[in-house]
Amino acid sequence: MDDEKLETEKLSEIWVPDSQYKDTATAELLSDNVFELCLGSKENGKVVSNDFHSVTLSWQHLNVSLPAEKNFCRCLRRRKQQPSEPRMLLNDVTGIVKPGTLLAVMGSSGAGKTTLLNALAYRTSHNLLLEGDIRVNGINLGSKIRDISGYMQNDDTFIGVLTVKEHLIFRALLRMDKSISKRARLQRVDDVIRELSLTKCENSIIGASLREQGISSGEKRRLAFASEALTNPPLIFCDEPTSGLDSYMSRSIIKSLKSSANKDQTIICSIHQPSSEIFELFDNILFVAEGRVAYMGLAKEALGFFSRQSFKCPQNYNPADFYINTLGQEPGDEAKGREKIKKICDAYIDSELFNGMNEEIYKTNASRIQYNFTLLSFVSFYSICRFCAPVFRQLWIMFMRCIKCTFREPLIFRGRVLQVLVTAIVFGLFFYKQDYNQEGVININGAIFLIIINMSIQHMMSAIRVFPHEMPIFLKEYGIGMYRVDVYFFCRTMAELPLFMLYPFLFGTITYWMIGLQESIPVYLIFSGILVLEANTANAYGYFMSTLFGDPELAFMAGSGLMTLFVLLGGFLLNLDTIPDYLSWMQYLSWIKYAMTLLFINQWEEITFIECNKAPVVLEMTNGTVMAPSQCFRNGAEVLQAMHFEKEDFFLNSLLLLVLCVGMRLLAFILLFIRAKRSTS
After folding, report:
1. pLDDT confidence bin for 212, thresholds 50/70/90
2. Which of the four pLDDT bands, split at 50, 70 and 90, describes residue 368?
3. What's the rounded Cα separation, in Å, for the pair 671 and 140?
4. Of the residues 120, 143, 317, 501, which has the maximum number of CB atoms within 10 A of its CB?
């Protein structure tokens, strides 16, 4: 009986992430009593998950390294290949942090502070090798630790056109547990705004660039913390939360972290060089130097440890500055600095403080060790609830945000409307009221060509200039399980579609009647429809290049280069019959070719008379002077014949242009999906 009571007490301490129950063979290994203690109580065969309270995070023998890179040049030269040694970023790091604790990770620049935080949160880059044992309440959750923790990054990534309150409401509606009512979520938003002193700026736009003047840097840092604290996670990582702030704002941020830690949360933050007032707010300190731990323990006991190593802090001196200077390296004397750091780190490894911490980690893990196999097997068979909101709620909330972003983003809405109007009027003035004669044919053809090129450039650039800047925000929000990839891509496409139909329609309407194309409503409507489809195909191409490269500059360079080829393959500047066979296949990827064919056929098919006002050409022959008739286009069919466009190809080119539009949009989605999955793997 006593053994059963002991088992119950031990099991009640085990924390397992919040999840819906899934019937599996492994789950059946757990009795109802054990299951209820681990996950929650059962009602009608379903589990009602208990709220988690607190977590203890421990890690042992943590190593992060940059793998050796092979020298491919030597390989090409057929020389003996000698791979370089891997670069160790973290070397055998061990530590533990308990609930209600604010742990500060300190060290000089490049010491490994951010690398340690990323490793503990399972957010390391794909090119880094992570080794070691990281446990939450004695259980190795692996990458699923991201689903029960918050991560405040050093760089503030926000959608700048949203207000502070809109940003928090969006996260509350999608990230908070689905059992919580909407009213309670909105109340939580108000509470967080009040607790972090964001009341005066709650209705101000955040601002994310020079063109968007928004809230201050300090308010952005508090908003970043509010975004993570909104769901009240038991574990929060903060990377340089005071970066770029003055001493007053920095102290305000750290006091907010301290207040959250007092509510039994576990908070780990990296900080570069805090003031003495800020330093006093930390419970525990972890000093990192050259990827190793130089000290970890109570902040008030750090001076004693360094004193025992013959490093004494001067009187009335900021302790944080003293520690950073002691663990730093003087330029030009790196060898002496490394020797000093090695001495301190070795002394810490041999200290009773380190041995006591190891015993504490062992006790934390040993109290649960007999249940680890069953629990880890069970955890592997169920997935933590990444997407708390149902799909339809995700669609609605994401669509509303995309609508706001689309109409508030100056590069998409206000600036584009002005650009379309001005450009269309200028085009119309240059080609105003063309006559249907030989000069008019050349001018009309040139106008159609320039309209296609202008629409392609504008709509391609609108995707390349905006989408790559939003991609880091998408990857971050997807990584914490706010919404699915297909939900995001579909909503963004649908929110932009009305504008990307309006712009080419508006541009085409102004230029069509100013240039003086056919005075036929059906022909005008077909002209507008083709222009809308061509513009959206160019926009899909911009999305494809953006998701392929991820960087706006690379996407622009590659996109504009390929587009130059597509222009040449359009059939206006180059006779397609003269293209070599090994390059001719590329014309089928050119939406400009399809749009050119359709617009020329639409314009000239019904034209039965074109005035020929050219004088005959005088040819000097050996037997006298001969008057030869000049070459004239006498009707629209002759214009199409000269351009090698067949009116029978109208339907096929329309279908191919539509296929190309949908195909490039689908490829962009697939590439975005791959990027999202790789970011969470």
Report:
1. low
2. low
3. 31
4. 120
Q: Is the dihedral of CA 196, 200, 202, 206 positive or negative?
A: negative
Alpha-carbon span 532 to 523, nearest angstrom = 14
Give the C-alpha separation, 299 to 303, whole Å: 8
pLDDT at 406 over 90: no
Strand partners, 41: 48
The amino acid occupying position 588 is Y
Tens digit of each residue's pLDDT (9 = 90 or more) over 496-526: 999 999 999 999 999 999 999 998 999 999 9
Q: CA nearest 303: which of 289, 288, 318, 291?
A: 318
Element housing 284 (H / E): strand 284-289
Question: 37-41, 106-110, 313-317, 636-640 — which is least confidently predicted?
Answer: 37-41
Residue span(s) of the chain under CATH 3.40.50.300 come to: 57-70+85-154+234-381
CA distance 294 to 345: 4
Determine the average pLDDT of the residues in 464-480. Answer: 86
Distance separating alpha carbons of residues 226 and 198, to the nearest angstrom: 9
- What is the rounded CA–CA span in Å between residue 229 and residue 231? 6
Task: Tell me how long the chain is.
Answer: 681
pLDDT of residue 274: 87
Distance of alpha carbon 500 from alpha carbon 26, whole angstroms: 52
What's the CA gap between 588 and 591, in Å, rounded?
8
Structure tokens at 667: 């490829």
Q: What does the pLDDT look like over 244-273, one tens digit per residue?
A: 778 888 888 888 889 888 888 899 999 888
Given a contact cutoff of 8 angstroms between Cβ atoms, the answer to whether 221 and 193 are in contact is no
Helices and strands (H and E) in the chain: how many: 24, 13
Measured in whole angstroms, how far is the alpha carbon of residue 175 from the centre of its chain?
Answer: 17
DSSP letters along 458-517, please? HHHHHHHHHHHHHHHHHHHHHHTTSS-HHHHHHHHHHHHHHHHHHHHHHHHHHHHHHHT-
d(CA 532, CA 545): 20
Q: Is the pLDDT at 493 greater than 80, yes or no? A: yes
Position 197: which residue type?
A: S
DSSP conformation letters of 403-442: HHHHHH-TTTTHHHHHHHHHHHHHHHHHT-S--SBHHHHH
d(CA 71, CA 248): 50
C-alpha–C-alpha distance, residues 489 and 645, integer Å: 36
- Cβ atoms of 195 and 162 within 8 Å: the answer is no
Architecture of domain 57-70+85-154+234-381 in this structure: 3-Layer(aba) Sandwich (3.40)
CA dist 424 to 432, 450, 511, 516, Å? 11, 11, 6, 14
- Rg of the Cα trace of the chain? 33
Segment 29-63, tens digit of pLDDT:
333 333 333 333 333 333 333 344 678 899 999 99
Q: Alpha-carbon distance 185 to 191, whole Å?
A: 10
Which SS3 state, helix, strand or coil, does residue 395 take?
helix
Structure tokens at 48: 């009602």
Please give the distance of CA 574 from its chain centroid, rounded to a whole number.
40
d(CA 470, CA 178): 26
Is residue 372 very low, low, confident or very high in pLDDT (cuts 50, 70, 90)?
very low
Q: What is the pTM of this model?
A: 0.80
- Whether 253 and 102 have beta carbons less than 8 Å apart is answered as no
